[in-house]
Amino acid sequence: RGISREPGSRWTEPGCQSCTCQGGRVLCDTMSCSVPCSHPLPAPAGGCCPTCTGCLHEGVARAEGDVFSPSDGNCTVCVCLAGNVSCLSPECPPGSCPNPSPSDCCSCNPEKCNFRGRTYAHGARFSLDGDDCTTCVCQGGEVECSFTPCPMLDCPQHQRQLGPGQCCSTCRDPPAPAGCFLDDNGVEFPVGQIWSPGDPCELCICQADGSVSCQRTDCVETCPYPIRIPGQCCPDCSAGCTYMGRIFSNNETFPSALDPCLSCICLVR
């Protein structure tokens, strides 16, 4: 090509042909490149072989010593050294992560719970050996159990009962009253009993529900001088007369206490 070459000389022709002068002949062959790196840069302009003085990673040229993160992120850090790209991912400690933040580099799976020969997922709720009165929950590898809360009862202890399969006691219905109990004198009357509470004009009866019903007697017979019999409600106008503190029988004649010249007689009308 119009250029004189010394025997044994070597040069490069366009198209990355490596040529040598041997005994007046030119021998050419395609150059073979030895690239001792994993992410070489493309050959520079006018060059034939890639270079390891930088890195080509995911289509992006990186300078020697450049530190960067890959496109998928995930907190991985990469560095370009002598044409090689080395990436490091963060080491996430094992364990539970009850409240992982979206910005955290480490993705985590909450620990499962091994409890009495069974495995439960995080957040699982279950009963203790079929006992519906106890509720357990798996939280980050730990099992917490608690009893079912019971409502407050407004009945006395002797009226509470716990039915089969129930977790909480309930109040029994109070027994049907067998009679009427009077708090004032402590006397209990059977159902249907009639009595007077001290006033002969008032009668009371013990009802079937344990209540007491009372009613007064109205006296319709009147006379000016009746006889009042102890324990009897209404005065008696047929038995005689009461006059000046004395009792006289029917048709009995007696002197007046105010005037001895007057004679009185008890008449039933």
Question: Would you give an account of this structure?
Answer:
The protein is mainly beta and 269 residues long. Among the domains are: 40-88, Complement Module, domain 1, CATH 2.10.70; 113-147; 180-216, Complement Module, domain 1 (Ribbon), CATH 2.10.70; 225-268, no CATH class. The chain is 0% helix and 35% strand. It contains no helices and 24 strands. The strands form ten sheets. A three-stranded antiparallel β-sheet has the order 1-2-3, with no helix packed on it. It has a three-stranded antiparallel β-sheet with strand order 6-7-8, with no helix packed on it. A three-stranded antiparallel β-sheet has the order 11-12-13, with no helix packed on it. A hairpin with a 2-residue loop joins strand 11 (125-128) and strand 12 (131-139). It is found in: Secreted. Pfam families: VWC (PF00093), VWC2L_2nd (PF23334). It comes from Hypocryptadius cinnamomeus. Residues 1-53, 53-114, 111-172, 178-238 form the VWFC domain. Keywords: Glycoprotein, Secreted, Signal.
